[in-house]
Amino acid sequence: MATATSLPNFLHGKNTRVLYVNPWFTSATFTANTTNGSYVIVATTAIVPISVGQSIIGSGIPASTVVVAIQGNTITLSAAATATASGVTMTVSSTGIGYDFSPYFNDVSVSTSQAAEETTTFLQGGSKTFIPGLKDGTITLSGFHDGTIGGTSSIFHRADATPYDKSILVFPAGGLLDSERCFMANAVQTKFDIKSPVAGVVTNDMEVQADGGVWRGNGQYLVVSTNGNSTAYTPFPAASSGTADTSKGGLLVLGLQLLTGGGTIAVNFQHSSDSSTWSTLATISSAGATVTPLTGTIHQYTRLQWVFTGGTNPSATIYYGFARY
Amino acid sequence: MAKANTVAYLVTDKAISLSYNGKNVFPGDIVSDFPGESISWLLEDGLITLAPVAPTPTPDPTPAESAPVEDAPASDVSAETGATN
Fold it and tell me: Cβ(A232)–Cβ(A273) under 8 Å?
């Protein structure tokens, strides 16, 4: 009699997406050259982190202007400059900052471990015995070096200068589907190497030590243009409504990378006991990224909701990762 | 089909926002159409409370002759009830 077998479902690494979030970022200053009537400015002092969606203020830059693209030291804005000038002081700001590192790196390793504490005593038959100890984790990234204003060097230089945890979110399958598996950690950056071989590309290695463990969760990276929400997700499909709530909180990374078309957006991470009415646990409404350690009850179902207000053909790039403790 | 609830509830400040049936409601909103099955956990989480009932004004047949009624000061209440510290 034939028996049913489950077939493996392997992933190709080419689709992996890596997001890096510094929730402590508020603003940074640099200088740039502006050209009257041009949407493009050219940074003349680099080494600051900058990301699409950030607001930008400077002489000759209209109010409410945001960064819409970064290519090397050339920055495209949402509005044209009103003056031609050199060495203009620019300030970019956002509530936290998040980067999609996928264009820079080509290898990511998420490593978790658990200590085994020896409890061997006399007269136990000659074999060592152990109990589970503390969990630990690291995430390492390696790829190519970019020393321009939005590149890896700028980002990690700033990260080193901020003595607080950053977060890394890894989607092995890309994060484009509803509630896709992800790995995430709040972490202390412990290493950033630049390798410059005489006969090769300049590369970077970067390593973080998880502060509180590496967590396996679910999340998504998506571009949205109309109001909507992700499909309700529960890791407990067999449970009745509410019976699979958890009580130890969780780790939530929430990001809004770019909003175009004017108007506003509210991106809400929600939970529900019945998949009918939803309560917002955390929200983000301006470009940036937040890391929220949630406490207490997380109901059985979770989802992401996004609501646009105003604007013309608005569009936003948003992402989240969530793991229950 | 979920049974609609007809009792009015106040969304508390503990809620950032609540979503149901394509609607978003916020703290301070009074809602009477939450899905019935959600009421218990929303109350348990403190996200909603029973909405305060507005007092129904009673027509006063002789308003001009009515004497104003003032609330008694707290100290007077203590004296009347014999409460001691």
Answer: no
CB of A88 closer than 8 Å to CB of A58? yes
- What CA–CA distance (Å, rounded) separates B24 from A280? 10
Instruction: Report the 10 Å Cβ neighbour count for A11.
Output: 11
Tell me the chain A residues in contact with residue B45 when contact means C-beta distances shorter than 8 Å.
Answer: 279, 297
Distance between CA atoms of residues A319 and A101, nearest Å? 13
Query: B52: distance to nearest CA of chain A, Å?
Result: 22
Which candidate, A67, A60, A64, A83, places its Cα nearest to that of A28?
A: A67
Q: Verify whether the Cβ–Cβ distance B18 to A305 is below 8 Å.
A: no
* Contact: B38, A273; criterion CB under 8 Å: yes
pLDDT digits (tens, 9 = 90+) for B48-82: 999 887 666 666 655 544 444 444 444 443 333 33
ipTM above threshold 0.85 = no
Chain B neighbours among A 219-258 (CB < 8 Å)? Answer: 229, 241-242
pLDDT, mean of residues A266-270: 96
Sheet containing B18-20: order of strands: A228-229, A301-309, A264-272, A277-284, B18-20, B23-25
pLDDT in tens, A283-296: 999 889 999 999 99
Tokens of A145: 């070096």
Which CA distances in Å does B74 have to A260, B42, B67, B71, B77?
58, 36, 21, 9, 5
A268 and B17 within 8 Å at the Cβ level: the answer is yes
In chain B the beta strands, taken as DSSP E runs, fall at: 9-11, 18-20, 23-25, 30-31, 48-50
The pLDDT tens digits for A29-76 are: 999 999 999 999 999 876 677 888 889 999 999 998 999 888 888 999
Task: Determine the residue of chain B that is closest to A243 in CA distance.
Answer: B41
Of A241, A273, A279, the CB nearest to B15: A279
CA angle A9, A10, A15 (to 5 degrees): 120
Q: Which of A270, A273, A276 sits opposite B2 (nearest CB)?
A: A276
Residues A151 and A104 sit within 8 Å (Cβ to Cβ): yes
CA distance A288 to A268: 14
